[in-house]
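Researcher: Next entry in the queue.
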Amino acid sequence: MKRRDFVRTIGTAASAAIPARLLSAETGKLHIVSLSFDDGFKKSFLRIAEIYEKFSLSACFNIIASAHMPGNQVRDDYMKQEQFGDFGAWNELQDRGHEIMPHGYRHAHLASLPPEEAKDLIRKCIDVFSKELRGFDAKKAVFNFPYNQSSPELEEWLPSVVMAFRTTGGILNPLPKPATVKITTGGFGPDNAEKHVDEYVDKLLAQPSGWMVYNLHGLDEEGWGPIRPAYLEKLLGRLREIDSVRIQPTARVLMQAKSGRFAGI
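Model: Structure for this entry, 265 residues:
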């Protein structure tokens, strides 16, 4: 299935931790920003990691498990085989403090498949991660649906397999609770997504508190709805200056919620 034929705008309706700053005593506000980068574009992901590291931040990367395998079936209309990295690169990024999470065995529209076939593909994805990603624990993982499309049956089943899952339903989430298993997201494409990202940052900051989970892919020419490296660096720098903002990957946010970090906010 071609993403451009499927949807233009979607969702508009762990590793070593980096200590978070304390909440502002004056405002009591908390705005969490998780930019969630999908698929596994090696050139883009390595550059994104470098930009995050300039600010002592951890990026959130979601990988198609079979993308590095010969004869894989991951390609969409915006994907080229030579753009994908392998688990050598993903282990290195994880060792540097970034979050590496599953994005399907191949880029299949799981909601449109028979449920047992979809479950089998998810199991195959988890198996590859368990074998290839050092220290991977499915019970601490977020499964990121391809196309952000799930089904009620898959949503009911997945919490028995992983900690949580990401699907469509809106870019702005409430702060998670210890029992949160469903994260909703959205994005923009196929053209440059920067204006859309800025609009949702403004919407997040207009709320007393909340969690923005924005689905991105690559930089420059790579991926659906790309952004520029200079834009990402400027965005992270701007957000770091706002006292109420925390920039963190999704699984780390959920682990903090399980510890009661956001209780009473």
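Model: The CA atoms of residues 84 and 255 lie 29 Å apart.
Researcher: Noted, moving on.
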